[in-house]
Amino acid sequence: MSSGVRRISLGIDWLDYAMLGGGVPRGNWLLITGEPGVGKSILTIQAAGGANVDAMPVVYVSTETRFFDVVRQARQFNIDLSDAVSLADVLAGKVKDVKTNLVVIDLFGLAREYRELLRAGEEEEGKSKARSPLSMEVVMASIERAYEVLGVSEEGKVTKDVLVIIDSLAPDVGPCAGDG
Ligand SMILES: Nc1ncnc2c1ncn2[C@@H]1O[C@H](COP(=O)(O)OP(=O)(O)OP(=O)(O)O)[C@@H](O)[C@H]1O
Ligand SMILES: [Mg+2]
Q1: How far apart are the first and last CA of the chain?
Q2: Across residues 170-177, what is the average pLDDT?
Q3: Which residues are near ligand 1 (CB < 6 Å)?
Q4: Which residues contact 139 (CB under 8 A, 6 or more apart)?
Q5: Average per-residue pLDDT for the chain
Q6: 3-class state of residue 13 by DSSP
Q7: What distance in angstroms lies between residue 73's CA and the mean position of ligand 1's atoms?
Q8: pTM (2 decimals)?
Q9: Over the stretch 95-130, which tens digit does the pLDDT of each residue have?
Q10: Vertex 89: Cα angle to 87 and 92 (nearest 5)
Q11: DSSP one-letter code for 132
Q12: HEC states along 83-110?
């Protein structure tokens, strides 16, 4: 492709070159849809592993699988995600001196910490609405925290390309719903 768009390789040749003309256009979301069980989740794990090999920071949001199951499922496909860190573990103080390129946000694992994630913003705005850990506000706040853990944000601005993967989205929730 000769357009000026920079493309981010997912490390999956058939997807990058046969389907995407070199990878995901930088700054865009790629929506993967398909029947249950066709392999969408495995594909996202493969992309996380591929980006990790290329030393690209990755935020992997899982709404349906626990952190350890993501790593275990990857291992079954010979994808090494053993240096992945769970955001819930970081927030709970279980992981110190984090050095990783791959932060997994397992939304069920965040059930205890998500109120804390939202607290700062809510105090400022004087809101006290209870939200579910699966709300888009929690997803967006978690991704911001993951950027900090990866060391790719400064004063709220992202300083490096990051691959953000969300598996999966409910059909009625758009990826940028929090941005207005
Ligand atoms: N390339 C593959 N080779 C062998 N088995 C695979 C492959 N991809 C996926 N599978 C198997 O197929 C099953 C479903 O895959 P996966 O969970 O990725 O599907 P999915 O599209 O995400 O489904 P859902 O819509 O239910 O989330 C899993 O048991 C997985 O181990
Ligand atoms: Mg799936």
Answers
A1: 32
A2: 51
A3: 34, 36-42, 168
A4: 61, 105, 107, 166, 178
A5: 84
A6: helix
A7: 10
A8: 0.85
A9: 988 889 999 999 888 877 777 777 655 655 555 455
A10: 110
A11: -
A12: CCEEHHHHHCCCCCCCCCCEEEEECCCC
